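Hi W.,

Here's what went into the run:
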Amino acid sequence: MNRREIENLVVKALFKEISDEEQHRLDEWLGASESNRALFERLHSENYLKGAIGDHNRRLREERWQRLKKETVQTKERSLRSLLPRVAAVLILPLLAGAVMWYMSNAGNPGSQLAQREIKVGGSKAVVTLSTGERVSLFGDTTLCVNDGLATLVNTKDTLNFMKNNDIVVADNSFNVIQIPRGGEYIVRLEDGTTVYLNSESELRVPVHFGKGERVVWFTGEAYFSVKHEDNRKFIVRTDKADIAVLGTEFGVRVYTEEKELLTTLVKGSVEVKSDNDVYRIVPGEQAKVDHEGKIVVREVNVDEFVAWKSGRIVFVNARLEDIMNELQRWYDFNVFYSTPELKDIRFTMDIMKYKEVSEIFELMEKIKRVSFSVNGNTVILK
Amino acid sequence: MSNAVFVDGICLSNSRIFKEVYEEYFTALKYFAMRYVKDEEVACDLLQDVFIKLWEKGDRFEDEMQLKTYLYRVVRNHCLTFIRDAQRKEKRMEGFKVEETEESFVQQMIEAEVYALINDIFEELPDACRNVYMKSLEGKSHKEIAEELNIAITTIKKHKTNANNYLRGRLKNLMCFMMYVG
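Here's what came out:
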C-alpha cells in the first residue's frame, strides 16, 4: 500500500466516510505494525484534529508568500545566473548530437573524404531566439527547460511549450522568435494554450507574455493555427500583407515573403482577414487570398489540400512543376536546375507522404509525365 | 498538484512551479516543522529559509514522490540544525532529544500530510462551521455548543449537515484521486 492511499484511508476513517472494502484495507495496514496503530491513534487525538480543523494556514501561507517571493521569484540575479548553465547545456546537446552524427556518417562512408551531401528528408528543427538575445537550437529529441527570468520554455520531442507564468507581468516589448529552417517543422504551444504547427522556412514572433488585451503574434511562412478560444480577447496573426483576427478557431496561413499572396484557409470557426484597404470575414471551407496591393478575394476550396502538410502529406492539385519543386525544396533542401524553361510549366496532381525519401517522389513523377530527374549530391537536374 | 503538467520533471527554477510547490506543501511542512520547534513563527521562518535555498539551487525532480521526500528531509535537517544551535546558545533546551528512525520519519510525513489534507478541506468552510466541529470534538452536546457560541441549536445542525455534505464530496474526490495515482 502506498503512503498516499494510507493517508486517504485515514482521513476517510476519521470522518466515518469509509467503505467496507476501504476499512478492510485500513485494518490490514493497522495490523501490520504496532507503530501504525499508534500513529492512527495519534491522528484520532483531540488535539491533533482540533489543530487540523481550526488552523488558518491559507492566510498564513499567503502572508508568508509575500515575503518569500521577494527573496525568490522576484530576484533578477537568480534567473540570470541560472540561465547560463542551462543555455550552455542546451547548446552543447545539439552540438554533441551533431558531432556524433558527423562521426557516424563518416564512419559509414570510409571511402569519401568529405561525405557528399545527400538530399535528406526534413524533420523537427527550430531555432529559438530568446528575448535576451540568446539563441537555442532545437531538434526533435532535445529535452530542455529554459527559464530566462521572464518566461519558461519547455521543449519535448517536437513541441516547444511556453509555460504560463502568473507571477511576473512584463508589459515591455520583449519577444521570443521561433525560426524554422529549410527541411524543418515544429510545433509551438503558446502560453494561452494556442497551438501553432510551423512549416519549413517560417518565422513566428511572440511576445514574452501576452498582455491583458489582444493576443498578437507576427508571422511569415506557412503555419496551422489552432487558437484557444477566449471571449473578448482576440488572437491576431500579423503579416506583411494583412492581419488575421480570430477569437478561437483553426486555420492555415501561408504568407511566404517571396510569394505574391497571402492565403488564409479556414478549417473551423470564423476569422476576419483585414488588409490596409479591405476586410473580409470567412467561414469554414473558404479561403481568403490577399494580393500584394491588399485586395482580398474569397473562394471555396478543398481545405485538406492546403493543410495536408500538417498531417505529414504534401498535396498538389494541377500544380506547376516549378511550384512543386519550390515546395519540395523547402522540405528536402536541395538545388534545382531546369534544362529547358518549358519544363517549369508541366502540371502534376499528387498526394505524397512527406517523410518519404525524395527519390521516391521523383520516381513517381517520372511515371506521371515525360520528365526525368538526375540527382547529383544535393543538386537535382530536370530534363 | 494534481492539475499541474510536468512534461519534464519538476523544475524548481520555474517560478510558477516553485509557487505551486510552496502552496501545496506549506501546511504539511509547517506542521512537520512544528513537531520539532513548537513555535509557529520559528517554523515559518525555517520554512522560508528552506524555500529560499531551494530556489537558489533550482533543482529538478523526476516526480512528486522524489520531491516530497526531499522536502521533508531538508526541513527536518534544517530544524535539527536550528535546535542544535539553539541548544548551544541556551541551556534550557538541553532536554530536547531527537529520536530518529526511518519508520518514525515516514510516520511523521503521514501525520503532516493527513493534517494538511484535513486542514485544506476545512479551510474551505466558514469559521462558524469549523467552530461547531471543534466543540463537538471536545465531546460537547449541541445544547452546550449552542450556549457557548450563543447560537440556535438548529443553526448548529445546519452547519453540521452542510459541513458533512461538503466533506462527503471532498472525500469522494479523494477516492477518485487515489485510484488515479494508485
